[in-house]
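User: Design a sequence. Structure:
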């Protein structure tokens, strides 16, 4: 079989699926960049992939709790003037039950060779604002917070070819100890170590790219996720959970987060629609 028939795409978890110039971080340009990336690289088709260990475990910006711990009593991010959203975002982590659901979108065309795969990985790194070609930022000396990784279908006839192509992209990067940052999720070669979800639409796919991020330190629970969303709403943010939920991305903790939002009397702007009464995701 020709390598020109390699079928691939991207596993979308969180704002990579929904963010555009009219939502959340759009004013900084991130939303528009992601929207342009989706239009340029991805097919319009969307497939739901279940059985994934996903949780809200990484803090983007600062939560109100972190701001107050630092001696500032103002709203989220206000002490720096950046008004960052200070919300919990999604991670692939073995600490979560494997019952989450993400979205897979195929590339607009088959991957035709090593250079094509590398170009796709770099474009994804750009959309996520991950440094150093999507790999660990060892050359820059900055902490690793996220990477572009590859997940290969073990039944693919192209698995050895894909491993070779990926080693040319990821191999030159400094990645010693990478597996310790993503235990059970990503190995030191930037390859997803989770079992391939065979009973899913991915059975006909050769590979997918995804962007695991490092969970934040500290105790996590649904109440903290809800509280961070409510506090971030004061700064015009707070909709990460709502938009992610309405796009069909799920975790085992969604019901608990929704109940916590209700208990906190959260504004309806950050509450997800549970009955299909509003269009999914942010305004386009």
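Assistant: Done.
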């Amino acid at each position: 079989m020709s390598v020109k028939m390699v079928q691939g795409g991207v596993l979308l978890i969180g704002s990579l699926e929904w963010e555009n110039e009219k939502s959340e971080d759009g004013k900084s340009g991130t939303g528009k960049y992601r929207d342009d990336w989706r239009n340029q690289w991805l097919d319009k088709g969307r497939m739901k992939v279940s059985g994934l260990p996903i949780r809200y475990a990484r803090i983007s910006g600062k939560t109100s709790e972190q701001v107050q711990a630092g001696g500032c009593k103002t709203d989220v991010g206000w002490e720096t003037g950046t008004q960052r959203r200070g919300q919990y975002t999604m991670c692939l982590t073995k600490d979560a039950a494997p019952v989450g659901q993400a979205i897979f979108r195929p590339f607009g065309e088959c991957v035709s060779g090593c250079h094509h795969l590398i170009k796709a990985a770099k474009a994804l790194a750009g959309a996520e604002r991950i440094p150093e070609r999507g790999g660990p930022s060892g050359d820059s000396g900055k902490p690793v917070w996220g990477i572009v990784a590859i997940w290969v279908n073990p039944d693919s006839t192209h698995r050895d070819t894909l491993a070779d192509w990926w080693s040319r992209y990821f191999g030159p990067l400094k990645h010693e100890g990478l597996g310790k940052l993503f235990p059970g999720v990503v190995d030191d070669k930037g390859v997803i170590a989770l079992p391939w979800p065979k009973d899913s639409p991915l059975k006909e796919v050769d590979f997918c790219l995804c962007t695991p991020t490092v969970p934040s330190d500290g105790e996590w629970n649904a109440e903290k996720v809800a509280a961070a969303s409510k506090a971030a709403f004061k700064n015009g943010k707070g909709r990460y959970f709502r938009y992610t939920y309405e796009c069909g991305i799920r975790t085992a903790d969604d019901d608990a987060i929704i109940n916590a939002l209700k208990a906190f009397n959260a504004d309806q702007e950050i509450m997800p629609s549970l009955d299909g009464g509003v269009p999914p995701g942010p305004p386009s």
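Residues 51 and 99 are 4 Å apart (CA to CA). Residues 74-84, 133-140, 276-280 have pLDDT under 50 and may be disordered.
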